[in-house]
Every structure is written in structure tokens, then in C-alpha cells.
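Incident log entry.

Two folding requests arrived from the same account within the same minute. Monitoring flagged them as a possible duplicate submission, but the sequences differ. Recording both here for audit purposes.

Request one:
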Amino acid sequence: MSDDGLVELEIDDLSSSGAGVGRAEDGRAVFVPLTVPGERVRARIVQERKTWARAELVEVLEASEDRREPRCPLYDRCGGCQLQHVRYERQVSWKADRIREALSRIGGIEIDEIEVESATEEFRYRNRVSFTLKRIRGGLNFAGFHERDRPHRIVDVRGECFLPEREILPVWIALRAAWDEDAQRLPPGAELRLTLRATDEGVVLVIEGGRPGNEDSRNAAALIEEIPTLRAIWHRPERADRALLLAGARSLRDGWFGEQLAVASSAFLQVNREGAHAVHEMVMGELGYPAGMMVIDAYAGVGGYARRLARAGAVAVAIEVDAAATRIAATEAPEGLTVDRGRVEDRITEYLPADRVILNPPRAGVGEAVTDALVASPVPRIVYVSCDPATLARDLSRLASAYSVVGVRAYDLFPQTAHVEIVVTLDAISAGV
């Protein structure tokens, strides 16, 4: 390494965050965003640790055939995407490699080949997008995504982003035009999180952070009147337990998994509609014919699996901690469905033994109390839906004494990012399906 921190590296892999990985002369891994395996690059070290370093790209000396020109003009700074500079087919194959490596290294599970189903659309797939608004002195504000290398700073985003569904971007552009220079038509506060969600009946804005203002409801009503496709505005102030409706419709109908759901402000739904439906059908197929079965839908969200299973004749239990999601799951609930609001870790043992269990946890994975319960009281089949290969592999290792992996399939629900959705089918070792 030269005195100014410059190094030349051969990039031979991508990290779990999507940064290229090369090796320094002393053997340390060096992580360089915006690079592609197979490239030789010049980079500048910006952070050093005993076993690794982080660098910024200075120059591509020899480009990979998998490199492409990013579509977004903000991509060199914006942290919203990590892989837009990588040819899409290579993004997909890398995600398969990443899953296989995590299962082997962390879970002790060897899978020769993992299929990752490509997205139909590389861009314009997100039905929910969160921006950060920062107000600074002098009446100025920046609203957009965190910078890749300096996350305390915000890249100002207007109409450049290619990830939101087509219904969202015009609302964001109109919203930015409608608030004044220091965004006084939004609740007061130095920093706000602004989430836009598209539904079949229009777009919802959820504002998080800041504090209540005297004119919040009046301002929200005016924004809705000025932006016809903006149908509701909610606000959850800092340290508040729940969001309050400032103006507009309390819920909007949206089509998910063959039915119209009344979507509230904070309930979790996948950001990629088409991909989510593909995953849903895969899971339902792996569950088998459900009539008469006892099925637990753990980390159920709005209960998409449990509601459909109950309609097919199963005795279904949806366990979910989020209040807004459980309200949606229980609305016009079919016969045979029980919606249990609570932590899966606290509630699952009450419903075991069962015939099938669906695990669909957040990125942190399944609580150890859950895997312990499923080992102590094995069910014939578990279908585990994960968005993180590392925590998935950890959880599968915890289940290995009682279950064997019989199927792995993945779906690219998040093109241009390092994330991927994985469906794993497990059968109890001592029980038939």
C-alpha cells in the first residue's frame, strides 16, 4: 500500500452487502463497493481493522464482462442499491452462490445447486419506499436515501430513482413540489422518515419521527387535495407507540394472495408484489393438501397463508406481534382461522403438535425458543421463508437434530440489492409427510 492509501486489488468475490472483495498483500480482505468479481482495480483504503479493510474505488484497471453502466444518475453516491453496476444475470447467480456458501459454512448443509428465480422486472418493483427528510439551517432540506459511504448524509432524490412502482414516483415528485422550502407542511422535527406505499386505491404516506404540530391535520388534508393519488397521511411521532391518521382514508384495499385486504399504515407486506405471489404459491405447494390439517403460520404478518389455508379446510393459526397486521388478518376471517397477537417465541408451544408450520420471520431469523420447541415437538413438515441466508443457515443448524432439508428454492424479490428471498422445506427425520 502506498503512503496515500492506494492499493491495487484483484476482485474475486462479492460480500454479503454487495461490495467487491479483494486481498491486500498482507492477506486482509478489502471491501470495495462498486466493483465486480474478475476486475483489477485501484482503490483507496478508508478504514482499517486487523483482519479487514474498507476502500473506495478510484479506478477500474481491468473491467469484468459482468460490469454494466448503472441506470440511475445518483448511483455512485446513493446507498439505496448495491448491485446496479452488475449485469443482472450475474446478480442472480451471485445470490445463489451466497445462499449455498452460507448454508455450508454456517449450517453445515451441502447443496450442489440452488435455483434463484429471476425477477420479471429489474426496476419499478417496489410498492413501498422509505425516504429520509433532513432539515438543516437556513430553511433548506434534503430528502432521499442515505449515502453509501457516509450514511449520516442524505442523497437528495427527486425523480431519479428506478426502484419504486410507477404509481409512487409521481406522488413523491408532487409531494416535494407541494411542501415549501423547509417542508413546513410536514410535522416539525430535524429528521423524518417518509414511507410511501402503493395500493389498488392509491398511495399512503406514513411519516415517522419528529413531533406533533398544530397544523398537521390541516396541512395533510391540503396535500391530499393537491395530489389526487395520495389517499392518506399518517404520523407516528418520535417515541409514540402507534401512528395517527392525519387525513384521508383509514384503510385502502389492496389485492394480495387472491383477496382484497384492507391495508393500514404500518402492516408489513412484501415490497415486490409479483415476487411475493410466486413465493406464496411455492409455499402453498410445499404444504400439500391442507384440508383437515393443523397449520401454524408463524410471524404471519397479515395472515396471507393462514387465511388461504383456512379457506381450504385447514385449522389455521396466525401468530403475529404487530397490531395493525393482526387486525387485517382477523378482518372477515374465514372459518377455521385463529389470529393470535403475540410473540411467536411466547405462543408457539400452545399450538404444538401440528401438521405443518410456516416460519416467515424478519431478517433476524427465528428465536431460539421457537427452534427448541419445534425440535422438542417435531411436526411432519416445516416451510421456512427467509430473507437472510446467514440467519436462515443458523436456524437450520438448530433444527438439524430433528429435521432434514428436502428442498431449497430462492426468488430475487430485490433486484439491484444484495437481498434475496429463500424458501426451504424441512421434513421431520422420524415422521412421514
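Request two (distinct sequence, not a duplicate):
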Amino acid sequence: MVLLVRYGELALKSTYVRRALEDRLAENVRDQFAANGVECVVKVTRGRLFVHADDEVAALRLLRRVFGIVSASAAKEVPSDLDVLTKEVAAYARGVLASGQSFAIRPRRSGQHTYTSQELARVLGTAVQDAIPGLAVNLDAPNREIHVEVRGPRAYVFHEVVAGPGGLPLGSQGTVLAVAEDDAGMVATWLVMRRGCRPRVAGREPFLAALQAWDPRLAAMEPMSVPSLLRLAEEKWEPLVLACAEGLTAGDAAPFVLRPLVGLRDADVADLARRIRAA
């Protein structure tokens, strides 16, 4: 098995910027795995990361914590030759489908092949129905979707898609200061992390521990008031970017202040806090 990792807005960047972000994303995956004692090999291609790891369950759990990843799937890697691919998909279907269920083939191709995506869906769908009598095709709401992603000479077959946090790779957008002394502060910090910023966090447990699960290199500082943090920032860091939920008054001047929770309801913040802790 190989873990097929997808990213989103990175692909919209210029060639130079995209490559730099892809390299950063791959390095962050390696950091996350190393911090948790899970071995992996990461290969970067345009539009995808391929992660090889022996512990599939642990690998998927860790990939869900890596900012920049939109989704990941544990996939079976096979040749893209149509005859071989057809046999492999039929065998794969026997392990995830049963008579009486409905299914859909979701093909996707990249590169030059002797078949189109529509032809691939038709041939594979027929082979799956022949392999498991009693199956019904349902393209709108099937019991199971079998995805087949063909990339050049290789193809990847999978049925589960695990969502990631999305955003940009951590560390790709500079450093910010953050305050995490409650759920709101923890969520505000996490949101700027999702935009690629690496934070220096003034906070306390258990909020720091929850954030460290998302950033093994999290720079934690002792708890301090927002005014004290601003004074410290003026002495040591330039320019100052402060991410916080609340706590600034008109007298607390700061060149740049990020307020990630603006526009979020209390229920939204609570949902995000649960997600952060559950990682």
C-alpha cells in the first residue's frame, strides 16, 4: 500500500513557488512522522505526494495533522496497462463490496494512455460486476465508490478518502506571536498555523499540548499578558505580527494584529477546539 496525499491551493502557485511549497510540505510530513516514531519515505510529484509507511493506520492519523494536505488515501499501486489494471480492480472490489450493494467507479487520468476516462470507467465497472454477481451501478449515491487514479505507467486504487486540514504548509509564511490561554486562543493560533505561519506561543497546558500535536517544533513560551507580549516582541522580533482571540485594548499598539476568530460563532470555535484536541 502507498498513501496518496492531495493538496489544494499549492497547485495554483507559480512553478518556483509551488516547488518550494511542495518541498516544505514533504519536510513537514517527515517531521510529523519522525516526532511520532513512524518511519516513512516521501516522494513528491506534481499535484501529489506519495508516502510509503508500514503502519497505515498511524500514517493516516498523522497526515490529518499536516497543514497543506487536503486529503489522503491508502491506495493499492498497480500498472496502468488496461488488462492488468482491470484484473487488479476486480480483485480489489472483492475485498470492499458484497452482492446486493451498489457501487461507482471514479476514474481520473494524468498522462497519455490508450483509453479515455469514460472507457476506463466502463471496462472496470463491467469487470467488477462480473466478479461480484448482484452488484448494481449507482453513480449518484452508491454504497461504495472505487477510485482509480491513473498517473503515467502507474495506477492507484482506493475507496476511502481521509480529510486533512488544508491550508498552506506550516512554516511557509513566516513567524507570528500567539496567545493560547483558553480554547479561543488555541483556535486562533491553529487558524494562523493553517495559513502557513509558524507561531511562538505564550500559553499554558493543555492548550500548548494540543497545538504541539499539529506542530512538533512548536515554540512555547511562559504565559504572559498581551501587553507584556507586545513589549517582548518589540524588543526581539521585527516586524510584529500578533495572533490572538481577545485581550487587546486601544492602548496596546501593535503594527500588525491578526484576529482569526472574527466572523466565527462560539459554536464554530467550540467545534474547531474539539477537532484540534481529537487529532
